[in-house]
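Troubleshooting log. The previous structure file for this entry was overwritten by mistake, so regenerating from the original sequence record. Sequence copied from the archived sheet and checked twice against the printout by T.R.
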Amino acid sequence: MQEKRDGFRGQEAFILPEKTKKELTNNNLTRLLYITDIGYYPNASFHFRKRENGCDQNILIFCVKGEGWFEVDGKHFTIQKNQYFILPESTPHAYGAAENNPWSIYWLHFAGEKAALFNQNNT
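Regenerated output below.
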């Protein structure tokens, strides 16, 4: 099966530079919660990511069309239109678009001192 991390027609992505992330981390207001990466992947056929050591940030993925899936802690979950999931930072995971009905997703990475509050009762 073909797998793609990105490169979808019509996709949008914005990744903050490391210097800006450091400024947000050190600011009294923004250090509590801030977005580091944000984007949209439409009709993301073959979308797939696997991170054996997780990610440095928390990840939120919201499905607006189609279907996908994610795996964490040995459990497999199916995601459909109008559903979302959050992957806590440093948590090994994998996710991808369904083969027959690939998802369109909005996604973001977020961090900060209060970011872990969003991970409670997620899965």
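The longest strand covers residues 34-41. Archived copy saved in two places this time.
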